[in-house]
Every structure is written in structure tokens, then in C-alpha cells.
Amino acid sequence: MSLVYWSPTEGFCWARTAERQTSQLRTRYLQAVLRQEVGFFDTIHGASITSQVVSAISTDTLVIQGVLSEKIPNFITNLAIFITAKMTALYLCWRLAVIAIPALVMLIIPGLVYGKLLAVVGEKIQEAYAIVGGIAEQALSSIRTVYSNVGEEQTVKNFSAALGPTLKHGTKQGLLKGMAIGSIGVTYAIWALQGWYGSILVTEKGVKGGDAFTAGVCIVNGGL
């Protein structure tokens, strides 16, 4: 019953504080932009300043809100599970834990590397879409000028050319996500190591099979 009550309460509290903080960020960001001198807007390249402001207020703050409402709670939960699982494994079968826990490095390192690469690619995609949005915004805001100068085809060409980098970065992002998911297959190697060494502990060291199996489950699930 406590889980039924506290889980929604925790989610509501994190979502509430994330919404409040991102709302303040949007307001302060817009105020900071409006306080700039006129010369600041002449230094903007690529997308228009309006497109960049709208993109930052909508997209960037949504990313921050997602981090506050989802990523941080998940990080705290996973960290608690990791520590608790490893302590439980050490308590149940410390011999198996000492051998298997270092093997989790093969599972953790790929996740860190791919996470870093995905963050870099995500930033490039966002920058590319900001340029695309700027082209569309300029064309729509000056649609009469575009139509009078017969610039529809040129605008479409510019828009299509600006979409090129997004396709390239999107393909790279999909490849990295697939490699990150595929790296989870290392768990089978860890299970094989635990099964081999656990059988030795049970047959030769007198360790209980249930303790060895439970310790192995804690090690793998805690690493994931």
C-alpha cells in the first residue's frame, strides 16, 4: 500500500518542481534576450533571432524539464538499486561478487561512451533544426515578398538543403542507439562467468546454490 501511495506522490513532486523551475527559466531567458543591445541581434548567424529564442524557450526548456522530472529521479533510483544490489550480493556470496562485479565494467563503459556521443549528436541535430526553422519562419513571415519575386523554388531548395545535415545526424543517432542497445548483450557473458564460477563454489566450496543464484541476479540487475 505504501508503494501505491508514495510512487505517484514522488512523481507528482518531481514533475511539479520541474515545471516551476522551467517556467522561471523561460521568463528569465526572455528577459535576458530583451535586455540586449541592438548590436547583439546583428551578430546572430544562421537562424533568425526569433527562431532561436522560440527554439530555446520551447525545446531547450523541455529538455531541462525532462531532466528534472525524469532523469534525476531515475538516476537516484538506479544508484540506490546499484548500491543495494551489490551489498546484497556481497552478503550472500562474496566470492562470486568479487569475481563478477569487476566484469560489469564491460557493461558500464559502452553505456557511458554511447551516452556521450548521443549527447553530441543531439546538439548538432538541434542546431540543424534551428536553421531549418529559421528558413521556414523567414519565408512565411515574408510570404508576399517571396511570392512577388517568384522565390518559391529557391526557398524550397534552401529548406531541403538545410534538412540534409539533420538526415545525416539522425542516421548517426539511430546507429549509436542501436549499438548502445546491442551492448546489453554483454550481460550474457557476465551470466556465463557467474554460472561457471558459481558452479565451482557450489560443488567445491559448499556455497548454497540459492545464495549463489540470488547474488548473480543482484549483480546483473544492479549493473543494468
From TrEMBL:
<feature type="domain" description="ABC transmembrane type-1">
    <location>
        <begin position="12"/>
        <end position="224"/>
    </location>
</feature>
<keyword id="KW-0325">Glycoprotein</keyword>
<keyword id="KW-0813">Transport</keyword>
<dbReference type="InterPro" id="IPR011527">
    <property type="entry name" value="ABC1_TM_dom"/>
</dbReference>
<keyword id="KW-1133">Transmembrane helix</keyword>
<dbReference type="Pfam" id="PF00664">
    <property type="entry name" value="ABC_membrane"/>
</dbReference>
<comment type="similarity">
    <text>Belongs to the ABC transporter superfamily. ABCB family. Multidrug resistance exporter (TC 3.A.1.201) subfamily.</text>
</comment>
<protein>
    <recommendedName>
        <fullName>ABC transmembrane type-1 domain-containing protein</fullName>
    </recommendedName>
</protein>
<keyword id="KW-0812">Transmembrane</keyword>
<keyword id="KW-0677">Repeat</keyword>
<dbReference type="InterPro" id="IPR036640">
    <property type="entry name" value="ABC1_TM_sf"/>
</dbReference>
<feature type="transmembrane region" description="Helical">
    <location>
        <begin position="92"/>
        <end position="114"/>
    </location>
</feature>
<keyword id="KW-0472">Membrane</keyword>
